[in-house]
Every structure is written in C-alpha cells, then in structure tokens.
Amino acid sequence: MSDIQVGFLGVDGVGRLGSLARCWDEPFERAAPVRKFIAFEGQKNFTGEYWAASSRDLVGYESWVERDAAMALDFDPSVVALASQPFCLSWWDGDRDRQHTPDYFARLADGTGVVVDVRPEDLVDEEAAEVFAFTAEICATVGWQFRLVGDLDQTFRTNLRWLARYRHLRCHRASVADALREVFAEPQLLFTGADRVGDKYAVLPALYHLLWRNELTADLVSAPLDGGTVVSLAAGRAS
C-alpha cells in the first residue's frame, strides 16, 4: 500500500500530491472538493450543496442519495466534521493506473477518520465493487473506517429530512430546551410534552432541534414522526 498516492487541496487551497502513508493525518474533514459539482440542462442526477451543522459549512452532493447520506452523517452524534470529495486516490493495479475519489470524509469525536462512498446496491457493478473493496483495504492501513452506503430506509429518510429543517442553532432556545429535557425525562407523546412546556407551535422547533441533536430520542425507523410519537430524554442526559 506504500505506493498509494493521494491528491487533495490543502486548507490553504493549494493542490497537493503525496503518498497516503505520509498524508493520512491531514485534516481532510476541512478539505475543499477536488473536483467541481457540475450541473447542466438535461442532467439526470441532481447536484447541490447541503449545509452541515456538524461542520457549519456547505457539503456538495451529486445526487439525492448522496445528499441523504451527507444528512445522515451530519445527524450522527459521533461526527464532528464532514467534507465532500476530499481527495483522489491513485494507484497501479498491475495492469493500469486507477483513480478513485470517495464521496465524503468524516471526522469522529474520537479523532477517527471515516471514508464514505455512496452507491445504491443495485448500481454496484463488479468493477465498482472491486474499487470499493480496495478502498476499504487502503483505509484500514492508515486506521480509517470505510463505509459503503446506499439508499436510506424510506421512513428514516422521511424523518431525517424533517428534523434536518431544524438543525440550525437558530432553533435552539435555552430556556425552552431546559424545560423540554425536564418534561421528557419521563417518556411521553411528542405533542403532549410540547403542550406541557408552552404553546405547542412555538415549542416544536426547539423540540425538533433537540431530536436532531440526539438530546431527545424517538423511534425514527418504524413510523413517520407525528404528535403521537413517544419521545424521551436520551440516556446520559441530565434533565
């Protein structure tokens, strides 16, 4: 693996190329994308930028599936920073030069780096599977995790998209948040708890923000969030 090269833009915006063995500890979670996100008339996929609350910066995507993957990483409480297309890996496979640009690089709270590729399972052909498997091997040599993710579960995706509307700190109101933590120390219905804190519709943005931050928890997989969803204070959170 010593001949694996990594090309990236440093935090100073200058392009760099070096061996992964030497560059693995670069802050890739703050790297600029190594290629542009192109949009053109008639394009089948949708490109754009997602504002990540974890990084407080924009993260590019080239499809709705990539956007949802970025959103799920941003929702993960262990993720503290996130960047899109952070570098390009290049290597010789014995027959030809190969290159691969992962979709995301995430940094976890414990310092671990996570390389993420996004591809729906039915679109992973034999060549792509080989590239992903090799990328996983490369990551293991420098202590990174590798994740290959596809479409999110539909219900979880729906709930995550809803909560993501409230991810910004402007939805946080300290006094309301404190009251919500106290109320939901005992699990209860979402609307019931909101009503106990004050005007429901004034309280809900702060409630959804705490759910986004994983300070409050609910089942986001079994059914869409609604007023009858059971919400509780996350384990380890003081009321």
Key attributes of the depicted protein:
four-stranded mixed beta sheet; 239 residues; TnsA-like; Arc Repressor Mutant, subunit A; TnsA-like heteromeric transposase endonuclease subunit; four-stranded antiparallel beta sheet; Trna Endonuclease, Chain: A, domain 1; alpha+beta
Short description:
The protein is an alpha+beta fold. The protein contains 7 helices and 13 strands.
Describe the overall structure.
InterPro entries: TnsA-like. It comes from Streptomyces pluripotens. This is TnsA-like heteromeric transposase endonuclease subunit. This protein is of the alpha+beta class and 239 residues long. It has 2 domains: 145 residues, Trna Endonuclease, Chain: A, domain 1; 63 residues, Arc Repressor Mutant, subunit A. Helix content is 31%, strand content 25%. A 4-stranded antiparallel sheet has the order 2-1-6-7. Strands 5-8-9-10 form a 4-stranded mixed sheet, sandwiched between helices. A 3-stranded antiparallel sheet has the order 11-13-12. α2 crosses α4 and α5 packs across α6. The model has no long low-confidence stretch (mean pLDDT 93).
